[in-house]
Design a protein that fits this description.
Blueprint: H1 2-31, H2 38-52, H3 54-60, H4 66-78, H5 87-116, H6 119-131, H7 133-138, H8 145-165, H9 170-182, H10 190-204, H11 212-237, E1 239-241, E2 246-248, H12 271-274, H13 277-294, H14 300-311, H15 319-342, H16 347-354, H17 361-376, H18 382-408, H19 417-429, E3 436-438, H20 441-447, E4 451-453, E5 465-468, E6 484-490, E7 500-505
Parallel strand pairs: 3-4, 3-5
Antiparallel strand pairs: 1-2, 5-7, 6-7
Amino acid sequence: MHIEQSDKSRDLINLSILLAVALCIGIYLILTTAVISRDGTTFITYAKQLDSAFVQTIKNEAQHPGYPGLILVSHKATDFRYKNTSILSWIYCAQSIALIFRLLAITVLYFIGKHLFEARTSFWAILILIFLPNPAEYGSDALSDWPHLFFFAAGLYLLFKAGTSRKWWLFGFAGLAAGAGYLIRPECAIVVMLGCLWLGFQFLWPERSIGKSRAVCALALLIAGFLAIAGPYMMLKGALFPKKNVGQFSQSSKQPDVDKQTDLTLPQTTLASQFTPSNITRAFGKLFDNTGETLMWFFVPALFIGIYKKLKAQKWYEPEKFFIIAIAALYIPLMIWLHCKHGYMSDRHTLPLLIIPILYIPAGLQELSTWFQKRFSRKADSAAANRDERFWFLVLIIIGVFICIPKLFRPLGSDKQGYRAAAQWLKANTDSDAVVAVPEIRISFYAQRPGVVYENGNIPANAGYTVVIPENKKDDTVLTEPPGKVEYEYVSKSKRGVNVVIYRNL
């Protein structure tokens, strides 16, 4: 009993420290945000449309409704006394939801790390995750990543517990978590696939953890829990994965093959040419680059060393090792398919693949600290050697954190301050119904003016104003001649910033 209370106290202290650090970083990033991401404007617009036409909006939009729904609920909950139409109120609600779910996901990941290793190792792993710049930015931007990661991590934790404790009924709760995550991002269905693989494995391997009859019940609960939440959306859209037109069972489910979560578009080619050896090779290269960028490259060696060190000591059919291998076996092909079929793969797409392997980084750092101790320390007794290993471990942690800090504390969208300045001028100097031609939709979004993104230098006839980014390299937004009289000009003081000019159309 005393040991159990001591463990709970240690967990409470560890989580308090981790959540406090993550909260402070998140609040700082929210308060210093210059401009939210382009996808954030899509989610907020979706949320506002849900308020007026709930079912029809879900039918028409390609994005899943979970995160926009959370934004809408948050906005209504914080604005119940009076109607606030300020776009900043919507933005803060969206950012706050992302941060809250980041904190919830951190809590779940801490217990996954403790389940895989111990409390100390889990603490250091989550601390490293908190200081990684890209995941931190996603947790303070108006993005769906951390709400999705919370349900993804919760589903995995329930699978871990169900596989090791023989509490087969936990598979039902894992299905519910997967269904809730699916409403945010379709990739969360991987949790169901992982559970099905494990339960199917129980029929084939003699050293099963649960009996065949209970495995059947667990499988039924897993699928039923998932469909109870995800099923109505699938029926409404007429497909298993409507966002990518996969698994259609209704002709009305066909949607444009456009993903609003990426800025990259590639020419359409035939499927045969997309899955060529060169494209697949580039996809693997992109996957490795995303991994390196997410881990700031410094933690990459520790990641692979830790995974190798820990997994080689386990038998492949043990739940922890089985699920880690299965996640890679399912997620990596998915990322290759995404890159080859749809032409993109961002850090945001690959983050769920890394969210569990990140927990192995402290084990890799421990191996490296042992090597440094043997290489640079001359003390022979074990107590001194252990002190030196702890010293090198802390040195590696501190170096990694200091590498992260410059990018971590850079305000979100700091290079897009010109967008915000142009939007403020438009809001103060134009009528509320003035149509603005923009090269970037975030300008009209912040200005709360009807915006039309122009292409190939073609300015819509009904546009009263045109926003131009002179140094824009995109051919589809380059103008051959000024469209009218210059009304406002923003000149960035930063080398990374952009200049903006606003014209009143002739």
